[in-house]
Target: Reverse transcriptase zinc-binding domain-containing protein
Amino acid sequence: MQHHPCCLLCDQAPETMRHLLMDCTFARQTWHEVLTWLGVQIPTPNNEATLMDWWLRSTQAATTLQCKALASVTETSSLDDLEAQ
Ligand SMILES: [Zn+2]
Model:
């Protein structure tokens, strides 16, 4: 199966899992839109080493209701799988 080496969304960086979930301009905009839509005032994933680090930091700062909202959009049960790739 042929694989494009650069991100197909921005064409500015290698297409890695981290780039697609955290670093890509389009990913960052998507996170911003989703968090705004949920009314969750948590910074978008940015300088964390992994998405799981962001998740853990965010859930510590969020209310219970915000945690439920985050869990519904991130499907936290699959984060371990994503981080392992
Ligand atoms: Zn990109």
